[in-house]
Amino acid sequence: MSRKGDVIRIKTPAQLDGCRAAGRKAAEVLRLMCDAARPGVSTKALDDFARDAMSSLGCRSADFGYCNYPAQTCISVNEAVIHGIPRQDLVLREGDLVSIDITVEYEGFVGDNAHTVVVGGGDGEGSLFVERTEEALRAGIAAARAGNRVGDISHAVEVVANKYRFGVVREYVGHGCGIDMHEAPEIPNYGPSGRGPVLKPGMVLCIEPMFTLGSRRIKVLPDGWTVVTADGRRACHEEQMLAVTESGDPEILTPRLR
Ligand code: MF3
Ligand code: CO
Ligand code: CO
Q: What is the distance in A from the centroid of ligand 1 to the CA of 180?
């Protein structure tokens, strides 16, 4: 969901500081949310918890009101891939695969990250699915180096998906971030390497593999937001925000906290 064709912003050092601070807040809220995703808790209760957590951390949801999005967070359970609207009647059970996507605004900057947890610690298949999606995310991150192209990230993610025969959702993509939630470029989770815009130091990117255990086909629920797999199989979503650096490895702006 970025604006194709827009110029890709190169953040100034001061803007990178802002992105760093917002990313850190987003990571902190995500950590708290993942810990709170326990059996018996509704996704609405989790969303309420996020509002409190954000307010104690001095940030606020960037999701709420975005294109009229009605909640603080996106919580997508099992066959839901992304953009799950929290619901009172959706109560987490042991073994549920819960993708939590947190986007915050802090002092004028945006931090965006997501993680999938298995409620209650997990069945084998769910945990393996999460680990392998994280592997794809790491591969994408490793490709986010100055001089590479956006397609190198896309391809690196897709290679891992193919290795495990996951479905790769195509309708939604990663994106630039930091000043607006969605900036150029779009970063698909598939496609050839060596194509697309050249990565430059100061670019801030969200890489976010969205994988399925069956077909990659998706549909949007009548609520207008929740994206689910067409075949009802489970999905996994992992996201981190990073800055492309002058030399070497990207800087993770949403560090995974424990
Ligand atoms: N966090 C999402 C992303 O990764 C966007 C949230 S959509 C909203 O791009 F409607 F909830 F804001
Ligand atoms: Co997100
Ligand atoms: Co994102």
A: 11
State if residue 63 touches ligand 1 by the CB under 6 angstroms criterion.
Answer: yes
How many CB atoms within 10 Å of residue 146? 16
Domains defined for the chain, CATH in brackets = 4-250 (3.90.230.10)
Q: Is the pTM of this model over 0.85?
A: yes
* CB of 66 closer than 6 angstroms to any ligand 1 atom: yes
pLDDT at 149: 98
CB-based neighbours (< 5 A) of ligand 3, an ion: 112, 206
**Ligand 1 in reach of 115 Cβ (< 6 A):** no
**pLDDT at site 258:** 72
235 lines ligand 1 (CB under 6 A): no
How far is the C-alpha of 144 from the C-alpha of 82, rounded, in Å?
23
State pLDDT tens for residues 129-158.
Answer: 999 999 999 999 999 999 999 999 999 999
